[in-house]
Amino acid sequence: MRLVFAGTPEPAVPSLRALAASGHDLVGVVTRTDAPLGRKRVLTPSPVAQAAAELGLPVIKADRLNAEATERIAALRPDLGVIVAYGGLVREPLLSLPPHGWINLHFSLLPRWRGAAPVHHALIAGDRTTGAMVFQLVAELDAGDVLGEITYDVPETATAGDVLADLADRGAGLVTDVVEAIADGTAHAVPQTGEPTYAGKLTLADGALDWAQPARRIVDRVRGTTPEPGAHTTVAGQRLKVLAATVAADAGGLEPGRIGLVGRDVVVGAGEGGVVLHRVQPAGKAAMAAGDWWRGARLTDAVAGA
Asked: Distance of CA 68 to CAs 61, 65, 73, 247, Å?
């Protein structure tokens, strides 16, 4: 089959590489335009654009799949479109342009966590099992029939970045399996069942830690917002990013938000239990072990969030 692929960030790259090696004719890659990155705001091609260049594939750069992008994709005469984290909506007439339509790899067990940030929301909510699904793209958000799925048990200390990388690798095989099934006519579509939940794009505010919550919920938020948008609190008026944390076995009687040493651990009291800080990043400084930060800060009566 003639395939066109649409994707932008790093989690889309494994699927692109798998399709390029699948034996099908990957006739084009659609990705968003170069974005300014780093302190110097250097215009940089997306990870998908860079991978496509390495593979020698033609690239269409477009921030919206508008009439111009649709015309360029139509000229490729694709039989099937495959989309993984492109960052834009596929609307008519592009949606119906390929004879087999478009399929989408989504990193959740739909209909749970439809939307832009399913892995982040799953971890914040404390989900211990998630997965990935390939579904037929329809006009409604992430609502199409499911063509294939994998389940994934979330490791206890994994961050959103860890889980997304794992699912991206495992999902690449799922995508190629579904493409093969569509090509040989054996694909079987199953309607989604259950009550949908939604996973909107996260903002910096989603990383703010509320120490009145139970320790388990706080740690889940740290994991779900790492590496982006980043979990954070304030200590002595300065923002402190929390990069790694676990539930404390002993909270040392600390009140919510109060920071202290419990044995050798830097612990913050929570609404229920306490949180051990493992790695942190003070404003304007590099990431460091929480113990090094605590000794260097020389705080005798510190309260997080104040």
From this structure: 11, 8, 9, 52
